[in-house]
Amino acid sequence: MGIFCDDAVLIQKGNKPGEPCSITINCPDKAGLGCDLCRIILEFGLCIARGDFSTDGRWCYIVFSFVPCPSSLKIDWESLKNRLLSACPSPLFSYCFNQQDGSSPSPVYMLKLFCLDRNGLLHDVTKVLSELEFTIERVKVMTTPDGRVLDLFFITDGMELLHTKKRQDDTCAHLLAVLGEFNVICEIQLAGPEYRSQQGCSSLSPEIAEELFGSELLDNKSNMTKLENGTITVDNFLSPAHTLLQIQCLDQKGLFYDIMRTSKDCNIQIAYGRFNPSVKGYRNMDLFIQKTDGKKIIDPENLASLCSRLKEEMLHPLRVTITNRGPDAELLVANPVELSGKGRPRVFYDVTCTLKTLGICIFSGEIVRHSTSNREWEVYRFRLEESVEFPLTSSRSRSQIINRVKRTLMGW
Question: Is 47:255 a contact under the CB 8 Å cutoff?
Fold first, then answer.
């Protein structure tokens, strides 16, 4: 039985600011739908408090309860609904909202900003782009000797309207309102060779790559005990058609997205899932899963590989370190890339926000890709300027910066 456009996604807002809201999604199923929906919710800065997910392989029913992160965050509910509808696999939805169904990549545009530098500038620009529903695919930030900054943002538009002059003019107007119009150049155009040149592999040294991507990365010792207490229990007897995974782990921002992303990349279908509310900082989840052929997972090696991959995401889905790059200190943040090529939402936003809060200026920055033996990573590289409060030659200051960035990214 078919459903109308407005019935596919229902949003019930809380009665007061900061109160939990709910999203109910009822639509045809497709591979990776849960991951795509969790990604959109994370892009809007929302934290899922609990969730129920069920599908028979043809139709999907999902209920998410969530709260804004932070509670003061302003949400464009109509835009959120439209973005979720655009992920639902029905030609009707694409017709109603004139949005792409995800089968073809969104065009990449280059936003060029040239203006006077100041503390927190990069985050202020990133905040505007996030509020306007742009996704930053790559970035190149360069500070000139005369105190100016040239920022090249390679972005895609969640609203799919950046080809219009009105959307481009509105974007520049929002940026000028934040930056001030004096000596500011703002230009938007389709990305050309500049974007392709930013898609190359990173030049990380073997030592730095091992520090970022090694299996023993636990850079926040205060949380080591909690992380080690994360468990995955497998039950192949309760259900005749499904393998049951019972997961307990430390709660963190983007946890549901990480689990859905891992399941999507491993070609695992979650037929039913229940994500319980956080209790004393921990999450309990029950996942009834199948292979793409509709059978449970029996092979011990396949089960061990899947559990190992899921536990890795529970332990450290994001990698953070500070290293030397010539005479400068460089902050590196890395996260896995989906097999579809998409990176994790809001990482650039969270990192620049933390550095602005700490009063640490960014001399230059870029986003690159790095490949290891089993996956591709998105790496954020920030050259930091010396700070009186956080001297970058001090190992104690570096540890404090790493911990603050990590806590912001994980929502601790």
Answer: no
